[in-house]
Each structure stands twice: as structure tokens, then as C-alpha cells.
Amino acid sequence: MTDEDEKFLRRAIELAAKSRADGDPPFGSLLVGPDGTVLAEDHNTTVSQSDISLHPELKLAVWAARELEPAVAAATTMYTSCQPCGMCQGAIERSGLGRVVFALSGEQVTALKPPATAPPVRLEGPALYDEARVPVEGYYT
């Protein structure tokens, strides 16, 4: 962890505090280009915009995929106040970002929350392999 990494993580934490002050969950993120320039930053707006997908990591990954050339994205670092959730991690991987630096781990965030009250979602599958593979097979070649 460099002094520069700590500086950008502190900015992500500032964005998280702004998010909380605005009535949204306390999460913030920024993208820093290979030359150290802040390319974009955002915070959580899931409550204020009534959209459960509006995590800052997801919004910045979508922005990067649309706006950055693949080589630039691969040299970009996302700094985020907390470890990205599964949804955001998938988007980050698909966007081609090269590095993520986070302040709190997922376990640390969970420890700061009250116990979950919603029952876990049941996942069932795989099923219908022969039928389901038809639209996918050959797409990635």
C-alpha cells in the first residue's frame, strides 16, 4: 500500500460519508487512471434513486466499460471504501479494470451491520444442459 493508495482510499471514504449524509448507504468509489488522474468518482445512491443496483463500484465499472479503451481500463485502479459485493465484482471483471484497492473487507462490513433477517435465496440448478447450452455454445469463440 503506497501513500498514493492511502490518499485515494481516503477520498473513497469521504464519498462514503457523503453518501450516508445524503441518506444512502455509506459506500464510495473512484477510478484512477494509469497516470494518477481521477477519471470518475461516485457514491451509493440505492435509496435516493430507488434502484438496488446503484452501488458506486457497479456504476464506475459500467462507466469504464463504455468510456475507456481496454488498455486504459486494464491500467486503471478502482479505490473503494468497502470490498465490492458479488454483483460489483462481476461488473469490475467484465469492465476490464486492472486493480481494486478497498478499505473495509466484506467480513468487516458484515460485522458492522445488524444480523441479516431475510432468508437466503435458494438456488437450484444446473438443469436442462442440452437445451441451455445451444444459445451459448460458440458465442465466446
Brief account:
The protein is of the alpha+beta class. The protein is built from six helices and four strands, in the order αββααβαβαα.
Would you kindly provide a written description of the structure presented here, covering whatever features stand out?
The protein is of the alpha+beta class and 141 residues long. The protein has a single domain (3-117), classed as Cytidine Deaminase, domain 2 (3-Layer(aba) Sandwich). The protein contains 6 helices and 4 strands; from the N terminus they run H-E-E-H-H-E-H-E-H-H. Helix 2 (56-67) runs parallel beside helix 4. The radius of gyration is 17 Å and the shape is globular. The termini are far apart. The mean pLDDT is 96.
